[in-house]
Amino acid sequence: MRLDLDAVSVTLGGRTVVGDVSLTVPSGRFAALVGPNGSGKSTLLRTVYRARRPNSGTIRLDGRDVWSMPPAHAARNVGVLMQEQHTGFEFTVAETVALGRTPHLGFFDRFTREDRAAVTEALDRTGLAAYAGRRVGQLSGGERQRVLLARALAGRPRLLVLDEPTNHLDVRHQLDLLELVRDLDVTVLAALHSLDLAATYADTIAVLRDGRLVAHGPAAEVLTPATIGEVFEVKATVHNAGGRPGFALRPRCVCPDRRCHWSCRERRLLSDAR
Ligand SMILES: Nc1ncnc2c1ncn2[C@@H]1O[C@H](COP(=O)(O)OP(=O)(O)OP(=O)(O)O)[C@@H](O)[C@H]1O
């Protein structure tokens, strides 16, 4: 499923937090959204899965405006893994994952063989088959994150929107999740904080700063020392890590006293605010 964002802007609290963002993710491709805290990544993702209507601009799935289509149609096509998503802790893993089939069911519909197969497949793919009967409240944060991914996959989406999907996951499960997502035959738009993971798994990287799209393209073209340095305010060196860019990052001093650490940056912000 092709995703097109055209001049998308969102204003919150009188401030433009996403400004005039246009980008395309072709069908089956994986685009990573990177940018500093507060740069508008989550807000932009929310416009795609219909949680936040943009003030202007359009979002199209295979050419159809997401905000004009019936909500159920969007829900059947778009799987979502948000930050800090809440789940009913008293539900079992299987029950939670089964909720991912909701957009496919009418009000009085019963679970069909296809629904059950989709849930089983999602549990298998995320390595959760053995957890099916466990209560979600008894799981670790990382295990719960996998349950939420399984719930998104159970809907057999054609577009996956992921907001920091590797939060709470240990290194192996971060890799497992992104390998799994990359190998699915779906389009992916994922906000990631790790430049290394973005460069390893995404076909293209979209860089946001202050709500604006600074660059979008293959990692080797976009994640340059100059762009990383400017956008994240760090010193970056980029090396070849097995055919894709790898990064060494150090703090960059932005203070008059040239002391590179958080507290001096905080002091500067405080003195600017006074
Ligand atoms: N409801 C709201 N009202 C006012 N401002 C908001 C609201 N929601 C978000 N913001 C602001 O919009 C900006 C973008 O927030 P957003 O959560 O999209 O950033 P982000 O890039 O996802 O950040 P992070 O990496 O920290 O998750 C932030 O400055 C945030 O404070």
From TrEMBL:
Domain ABC transporter intervals: 3-235
A Pfam family hit: ABC_tran
Alphabetized PROSITE patterns for the sequence: ABC_TRANSPORTER_1, ABC_TRANSPORTER_2
GO molecular function, one term: ATP binding
Domain of life assignment: Bacteria
InterPro entries: AAA+_ATPase (IPR003593), ABC_transporter-like_ATP-bd (IPR003439), ABC_transporter-like_CS (IPR017871), P-loop_NTPase (IPR027417)
Keyword terms: ATP-binding, Nucleotide-binding, Transport
Protein known as: Iron complex transport system ATP-binding protein
Taxonomic lineage of the native organism: Bacteria, Bacillati, Actinomycetota, Actinomycetes, Streptosporangiales
